[in-house]
Amino acid sequence: MKKLVIGNWKLNPATAIEAVRLAKATDVEGAVLCPPDIFLMQVGETIKKASLGAQDLFWKDAAAVTGEASAVQLKQIGVLYVIVGHSSRREELKETDELVNLKVKAALAAKLKVILCVGEDLDIHKQGEVKTRAFVLEQLKRDLDGVSGGENLIVAYEPVWSISTSNTNLVDTPEEASIMIRYIKDESSKMGFDKVPVLYGGSVDSKRAKDFLSRGIIDGVLVGKASLNAEKFKQIISLV
Ligand code: PEP
């Protein structure tokens, strides 16, 4: 399988004009573009080669719930991938593993490809490898509880302390990330998710990408900040 490069635009850009411009500039084979919901349609109409992804979904269809988007709604505008359980949602919106689990199930039921984000924060990371592994395993178990048929499941290992930190020296290394990704693959396999692709995410830019993407064990990268810079993002995609 070709390695995946996912661009998570988060709350950027500010305007539809800029969103369309960025989509045009990064419309290349192998890229998955995840704009904010408000720009999904315009980005979807713009791209010809890249795939469309959403940053989140709600787990019910046609419910009396305000301000959300369902799997069915996302699908009908051409969304193929959806990020679930991103650490910014777990932190800022207090999204629990139980909610993440409902979202994973809803997305898979709608045949969306799920990018499930897991990863430890700095506090846990500082407690060492045993604690880190236990934390990530617990996340996986809770998030995937009762989930079957994982052919559309992708896991992204995103150590929270390494996200958006390219201005500090606090970033995960390809060596350490590879060890965790091996562990995630082994544990996922024991849970019945054989051959689940596992990506790395955390301050991947055009310089760091090569080191991660050259590791056989890492099936791709989830890119935040650098996905907003067309040149940098295209350089990353050119590596796969
Ligand atoms: C992310 O948002 O998932 C991410 C990895 O961001 P950044 O690349 O900016 O660290």
TrEMBL record:
Assigned GO CC terms: cytosol
GO biological process, one term: glyceraldehyde-3-phosphate biosynthetic process
The enzyme's E.C. designation: 5.3.1.1
Annotated protein name in UniProt: Triosephosphate isomerase
Stretches assigned to coiled coil: none
Keyword Iron-sulfur: no
Catalytic activity: D-glyceraldehyde 3-phosphate = dihydroxyacetone phosphate
UniProt keyword Transcription, yes or no: no
PROSITE patterns: TIM_2 (PS51440)
Catalytic EC class: isomerase
Organism the protein comes from: Candidatus Colwellbacteria bacterium GWA2_46_10
Annotated keywords: Cytoplasm, Gluconeogenesis, Glycolysis, Isomerase
